[in-house]
Amino acid sequence: MTPLPRRSPAAHADETPEMAAGPRAHACTAARGRLRARQERPPRRCYDRTVVAATQFPVHTRSDSEESRVLLSDVPWSTYVVLRDTVDSSGIRMTYLRGALEIMSPSRRHEVSKKQIARLLELFCLERGIPLYGYGSTTFRNEEKQRGLEPDECYCRDADRDVPDVALEVVVTAAAIDKLEVYRGLGVREVWIFQAGRFRVLELRGDAYAAIATTAVLPELDLDRLAFWAAEPDQQTALLGYRDELRRPG
What integer pLDDT is reported at residue 173 of this predicted model? Predict the structure, then answer.
């Protein structure tokens, strides 16, 4: 057998340790070099473009009278109760009637009107010495009747009771659920609807509401004068003007 040729010492002197170890070692060395290069490379700032793009989304600004309403169907009573108790915000109103649930976000115009009427009504009762118990937008609900809602404002006269004598509803946009049907099931004696600058009073008679000329809960109150001052753009002017009117002799 012919012996394999042996390389000279000079050839060995030019080899690196990796070359001497063979092709596999050379491949590993190259891979380590590529990995080191990637690690030393500065990170890409891929988030810059995302931030710039996000600022391009249009922002919707609601008008003073715009209200958001969502109507859900086939909602169990337990789900309504959990939602109402979880979303603890005066800016969200929920009306429930036998499986139908309306979620509403009132407008600024709505809230200003209902608050101004409330302040004027409370001023009237204070000036006339009439005991008035206010409950604001408390949630009233009855599982047996499958009904629940928050009035804009509500009151009892002379005594504190579980169900208000009067519920105030300011109408800026139309509701998706018949709130009178909810009030009927809850047994609220009177509902005052304020719409387009005028009051409409409905009284619960038997099993239905009927329109009446003036409130039976507060017969001393002139609702036309209350509506007049409720339309005053400045609340302070309205309160001072109404107070002076109530204190005027005759």
Answer: 92
